[in-house]
Amino acid sequence: MKIGVLGAGGWGSALANLLAGNGHEVIVWSIDEREVAMLKEFHEQRDRLPGVILNSSIEYTTDASKAVIGQKMIVCAVPSPFVRSTAKNIADKVSNGQLIVNVSKGIEESTLKALVEIIEEEIPQAKVAVLSGPSHAEEVGRGIPTTVVAGARDIEIAKTIQNAFMNDYFRVYTSTDVTGIELGGSVKNVIALAAGISDGLGLGDNTKAALMTRGMAEIMRLGLAMGADVKTLSGLSGMGDLIVTCTSKHSRNRNAGYLIGQGKTYEEAMAEVKMVVEGVYSAKATLALAREHGVEMPIVEAVNNVLFNGMTAKEALTELLNRDRKSEL
Ligand SMILES: NC(=O)C1=CN([C@@H]2O[C@H](COP(=O)(O)OP(=O)(O)OC[C@H]3O[C@@H](n4cnc5c(N)ncnc54)[C@H](O)[C@@H]3O)[C@@H](O)[C@H]2O)C=CC1
Ligand SMILES: O=C(CO)COP(=O)(O)O
């Protein structure tokens, strides 16, 4: 199958490599000429995935039309703040019914929309789906066993994606719950910031387990209010991704949270992590969604207070611990 990948960061490169390894004809687009030159010369994403030598059959381009026109599938792997501009940029090149698979995670702050909806809005003639789950590029790039979910409202599309991506180390499940998949993948990043902050403050495993579990309760509350399936939220793209992102050394969100817990601002933390820290972009939008749907998300609120409202991490934690007494159920 001919596949175009938009975005040559860690995730775009790891997935392009996987797809080329599966025998597909892959071309990767990046907005960044320097990135394309590096990939062409070294077959290695030296900034994001050092040590992973990418399949030499992959082509690279800065010309988006080459990665879109005539491709059977387009994989969109640009960070969430650039999904709308990238979709706008390719809209007139996408043919009727062409398949676009979003693999990024985030919620747009100005519209509170998830990424599949944004792509659908900008490219109404496309069929848009999502692929998400606990899947760090650093591990997928090394062929470490990984499981994800392909979501599309039309199950046949989800199956097409499953067939394209699946191999002996990358297991893909199908689902029609696009809302649940995208919500879990986006909100877990905000909770991972909290888990990282807790680690950065020097607190213990008990605290992190509490943040993950109560964070999951917040994801469930919002997800159910938005019509997601509880099985999706407790599945790979919800609970699974929350576990990996709150505990992994590879996690950009956890690592940024750690630096914030140590006293850095979110801008300083993002600069140090270098790669995209999606939780920072999704934090305000998640809180706004919670208010819109009338659900409580105290951990998400605490993360917002630390990131944007000048509260120290310690103060936010004290506030969380001193909330009204309540029943767990
Ligand atoms: N890295 C990972 O392990 C995983 C990442 N994801 C998601 O995939 C998405 C991409 O993440 P990464 O590849 O890690 O990001 P990254 O930080 O490695 O790469 C960023 C990419 O964005 C491109 N870019 C910068 N400005 C741009 C613009 N204005 N328009 C279009 N592209 C632009 C850069 O050229 C670069 O290729 C994120 O939403 C992330 O949450 C999902 C699963 C795993
Ligand atoms: O979503 C991801 C892994 O599934 C990547 O985000 P993190 O690097 O913050 O964990």
From TrEMBL:
NAD(+) binds at residues 7-12, 82, 137, 252. It is found in: Cytoplasm. It catalyses: sn-glycerol 3-phosphate + NAD(+) = dihydroxyacetone phosphate + NADH + H(+); sn-glycerol 3-phosphate + NADP(+) = dihydroxyacetone phosphate + NADPH + H(+). Its EC number is 1.1.1.94. Sn-glycerol 3-phosphate binds at residues 105, 133, 135, 188, 241, 251-253. It is an enzyme of class 1 (oxidoreductase). GO terms for molecular function: glycerol-3-phosphate dehydrogenase [NAD(P)+] activity; NAD binding. Keywords: Cytoplasm, Lipid biosynthesis, Lipid metabolism, NAD, NADP, Nucleotide-binding, Oxidoreductase, Phospholipid biosynthesis, Phospholipid metabolism. It comes from the Bacteria. The active site is at 188 (proton acceptor). InterPro entries: 6-PGluconate_DH-like_C_sf, 6PGD_dom2, G3P_DH_NAD-dep, G3P_DH_NAD-dep_C, G3P_DH_NAD-dep_N, NAD(P)-bd_dom_sf. NADPH binds at residues 11, 105, 137, 252, 276, 278. GO terms for biological process: carbohydrate metabolic process; glycerol-3-phosphate biosynthetic process; glycerol-3-phosphate catabolic process; glycerophospholipid metabolic process; phospholipid biosynthetic process. GO terms for cellular component: cytosol. Residues 177-317 form the Glycerol-3-phosphate dehydrogenase NAD-dependent C-terminal domain. Substrate binds at residues 105, 252-253. Pathway: Membrane lipid metabolism; glycerophospholipid metabolism. Residues 2-156 form the Glycerol-3-phosphate dehydrogenase NAD-dependent N-terminal domain. Belongs to the NAD-dependent glycerol-3-phosphate dehydrogenase family. Catalyzes the reduction of the glycolytic intermediate dihydroxyacetone phosphate (DHAP) to sn-glycerol 3-phosphate (G3P), the key precursor for phospholipid synthesis. This is Glycerol-3-phosphate dehydrogenase [NAD(P)+]. The gene is gpsA.
